[in-house]
Amino acid sequence: MDIDELIELVQLHGKSIYGFCYKLTGTKEETDDLYQETFLKAVELRHKMDGERNPKAFLIAIAVRLHKNHRRKHAWRQRIAPTVVLDEAAANKPASISKEATPEEAVLSLELRTMIQDAAHHLDDKLKLPLYMFYTADMTVEEIASALRIPQGTVKSRLYKARQTMRSILEVDSP
Amino acid sequence: MKDMDFEHLLRKSLASEAEPEDELNQMLIDQIKERRQLKTRYRKRLSVGLLAIVFLLVLSVSAYAAVQHFSAKQVAEHLSDQLLAEAFESKNAVQINQSKTSGDYHFTLHGLVSGAGLSEFKFSSEEIYPDRTYAVVSITRQDGKPMPPTTDPEYGKDSFFISPLIKGQKPWQVNILSMNGGYSETVIDGIMYRLIACDDVEIFADQGVYLAISSGSSFYSNDAFVYDENTGEIQAREDYPGASLLFDLPFDVTKADHEKAEAYLKSLAAPTSAEEDSAEAGEDEWVNWMDNIRAKIRDGETIGETIAESVKEVTYDDSGKNLIYTYGERRATMSFEGMFEDGQIGFTDRGISFSGDGKTYEALIFHRDEHGIVTGRIIILDDQYFPSEAEPAKEKR
């Protein structure tokens, strides 16, 4: 894949990649950084990318890896000079929800959506990543398996477990 | 709740409405374009690195006069590779001595040989791919001027890409660089000789193997060659301003090994190198370790011995958003928001920080009692909860 094709990907999949990065980081500033780094990493790896073999999944896989790296580095920075903790819980607050909801979306109360987002955000990474990849980035099970380098069966079981966990949280917490 | 409704609810709730701003996208596109230029410069530096190795080899070359082109065997001898010199004389070697002219230069392909253990200089990839292909090419200027000697600052200013390419394989993906290749170079009496080496390409004999040469860069360039996706053929571009040409490598087709070739190509196309995989494994290990500790704390399990004196009530900064924990010389400031769930009492698995020197590891964790009083404490982790040595050791400063 050449540079021009990669630039086309920014236009084509930018929104989707950005939305996924936002779910991972939870803040605009970190999302902007992760989004840019993802594409710049793709520039380095472009010889491994094939325009016809799902470049979006490739980009999401890069974003996941970069995000893991950041968290790891953050954890060790904290060890060396403890500072402000990564505020994961602050992510996914209703700020990410459009104020101009369609009538259909209005059916879902803001409260319920926030509850779901919080529940998803507090899931373990193993369950959270496939969940966001599936529902936020609209990836297929096959694409997720390839991006996370795990078998498709594992993706399915993690998605199932994530759904079950979410459901149990909602059933307990629902008013 | 019905499955369908729940599924719908999840999809609606987890869809992200965050979008990149136009300015951000424009900035990103500009950066991508800049990287294209940066990459070129970086690669040039890389090629200088390669040349440094070449210089080392060149030092051992004696400078006695030669009246005509040297043979592949003699070039190997000059590069102090007696073993390879003998290989070029063996029955497996192919003497070619074909010449072509392109751009400002005249190129001669002298000979090639493939096999395992042929060179005195071992390449790291030989442990995985013991068979390698070696070829010798010489370069002279068309205007009759001598090629600059290796001690001349002009040496290397016009660089060359010389690489086997496989018919049917994208040349930007399968070339000397991806095939664990390298080269040694020397200039004798105004003639430049390059000895190239890479993983064995004789296994592709039935598909067709080219030896591609272009000037202007040490790396493959789509400006110099064109690849026909339908036929798999590669051709030199006539409109390329520098030198650009192809030799057909006359391998013995009976030495082709289709199965081995397929397996080799598959290994080249693997998404990551072994190194990356191990880095990835290290990351996962580290994340797993953290997750494990957090899970233990969530479940109220003991992860080690608490330093009794370290149990201190936290204070808050002026903003009221950050808590401050102080014990001895240790001071930690953390965002309080999200550290505990609403109404949560007990230990939290959030805001944990770790420290360790490879022998002992400590975790700082927080607790909230029924009156809302938050305390921090330091726990000396039990041996069983130590992180694996590999990853933290790497990060230790």
From TrEMBL, chain A:
Residues of the RNA polymerase sigma-70 region domain: 9-77
UniProt KW keywords: Sigma factor, Transcription, Transcription regulation
Residue ranges of every copy of the RNA polymerase sigma factor 70 region 4 type domain listed in the record: 115-166
GO molecular function, one term: DNA binding
A Gene Ontology biological process term: DNA-templated transcription initiation
SUPFAM superfamilies, A to Z: Sigma2 domain of RNA polymerase sigma factors, Sigma3 and sigma4 domains of RNA polymerase sigma factors
InterPro entries assigned: RNA_pol_sigma-70-like, RNA_pol_sigma-70_dom, RNA_pol_sigma70_r2, RNA_pol_sigma70_r4_t2, RNA_pol_sigma_r2, RNA_pol_sigma_r3/r4-like, WH-like_DNA-bd_sf
Domain of life: Bacteria
Keyword Transcription regulation (UniProt): yes
Matching Gene3D superfamilies: 1.10.1740.10, Winged helix-like DNA-binding domain superfamily/Winged helix DNA-binding domain (1.10.10.10)
Family: Belongs to the sigma-70 factor family. ECF subfamily.
NCBIfam families (UniProt xref): sigma70-ECF
Protein name as annotated: RNA polymerase subunit sigma-24
Organism: Paenibacillus solani
Automatic annotation (TrEMBL), chain B:
Keywords annotated in UniProt: Membrane, Transmembrane, Transmembrane helix
Domain of life: Bacteria
Transmembrane spans: 46-67
Protein name: DUF4179 domain-containing protein
